[in-house]
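Example 3.2
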Amino acid sequence: MVAGLIVLVAALYPNGAPQNRGPADVIGMNAPSFVVPLVGGGTIDLHSLRGKPVLLNVWATWCGPCRREMPALERLSREERDRLTVVAVDQGEDPSIAKAYARRFGVTFPVAVDANQRLGTVLHLAGLPSSFFIDKNGVIRDAVDGEMTFDAMLSRANALTAAL
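Structure, written as tokens:
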């Protein structure tokens, strides 16, 4: 009985740890220096992208909103390639699945796979897709949990690049 009471008190007593973390919690922080394998071979290091604004999209092929959002990401990548780098990091899938998906849908920007989903943990993902707008100095300036339209992406990308 006493042990049960101790467990109950410990479970309900605030310990100072954040309870409901999400992508917005990383705004203002430096993007992690994180190396992930690209589906076409090689790797990409998020730190190496400094010097140009980046839209980092975290997704999976099984995610319906992610699939709906991918054409808008591709369009943004093509239309804004001189001002913005788009990178998509698949969470937890086999690289061959992400590669086949990217090929099937004509994705031309870098697609990587985080097989252990460590990036999602570091960025406090609440769900998929999640997008992070990172300035040229590597600071996360905006984060979106959920699907975006092309217009929403473009608006946030313009806000990011206007601050340069």
